């Protein structure tokens, strides 16, 4: 009981730290205004390839492929690998070990994201005629509103090197857990509180997320928060290391095997 209470308190604190409401869909990028003129950093010496630290991690690097909301390989993704700062990678290893004991493996969609990739997103969002994969990722959102609704921003917490987008795979079947929504879906279904209270893990019956899907999200969330990561309130797959080593630095070196 005490352990569960501490976990609930920890989740609540993390949620408060990330803020609430649509304006915080990219809460870990709120420093964008003060960092708008910052020169992107090229030094990758404090970064590691995630699979060197977490060998059990499965990679599905969407921005290296054409299956993403842009519909093309994104600038700066030279190889289908994933990078993080050393500190974040070590914490992710602890997450992986925890989940492996529960019968799961982590699957990573994205981690460090170079500033040149974010710039690519911005150019794509400004081109209102390019809606190649709208039905797959944003069928209910007018592309002209992507900036206004904070789906696309000029800065991303991923670019600081300690943020990761991930899901879970069942170790026995090899299948992804059903989270009730896909990675990079632009809509309320992606919010962690869609279908329940993530601070308590209590499901709320609704027409979007089933109890099993919500429970799967909570397995991932509990493991991430237990090992030093914080969530945001708009994406169930997105977590940033609380004690990130470069809170004000935006990197732009390409994603490649280090």
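Q: What amino acid sequence fits the structure above?
A:
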């Amino acid at each position: 009981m005490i352990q569960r209470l501490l976990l609930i308190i920890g989740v609540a604190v993390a949620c408060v730290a990330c803020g609430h409401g649509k304006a915080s869909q990219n809460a870990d990028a709120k420093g964008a205004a003060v960092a708008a003129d910052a020169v992107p950093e090229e030094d990758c010496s404090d970064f590691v390839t995630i699979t060197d630290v977490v060998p059990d991690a499965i990679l599905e690097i969407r921005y290296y492929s054409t299956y993403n909301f842009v519909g093309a390989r994104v600038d700066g993704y030279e190889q289908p690998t994933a990078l993080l700062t050393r500190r974040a990678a070590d914490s992710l290893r602890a997450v992986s070990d925890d989940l492996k004991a529960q019968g799961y493996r982590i699957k990573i969609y994205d981690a460090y994201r170079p500033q040149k990739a974010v710039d690519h997103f911005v150019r794509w969002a400004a081109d209102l005629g390019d809606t190649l994969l709208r039905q797959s990722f944003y069928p209910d959102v007018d592309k002209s509103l992507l900036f206004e609704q904070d789906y696309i921003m000029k800065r991303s917490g991923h670019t600081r090197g300690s943020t990761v987008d991930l899901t879970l795979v069942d170790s026995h079947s090899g299948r992804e857990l059903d989270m009730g929504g896909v990675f990079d879906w632009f809509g309320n279904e992606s919010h962690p509180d869609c279908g329940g209270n993530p601070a308590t893990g209590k499901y709320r019956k609704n027409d979007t997320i089933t109890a099993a899907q919500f429970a799967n999200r909570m397995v991932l969330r509990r493991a991430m928060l237990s090992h030093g990561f914080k969530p945001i309130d708009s994406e169930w797959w997105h977590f940033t290391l609380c004690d990130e080593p470069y809170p004000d630095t935006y990197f732009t070196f390409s994603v490649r095997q280090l």
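Q: And what stands out in the fold?
A: The beta strands are 47-49, 58-59, 83-85, 104-110, 163-170, 196-197, 202-203, 229-231, 238-241.
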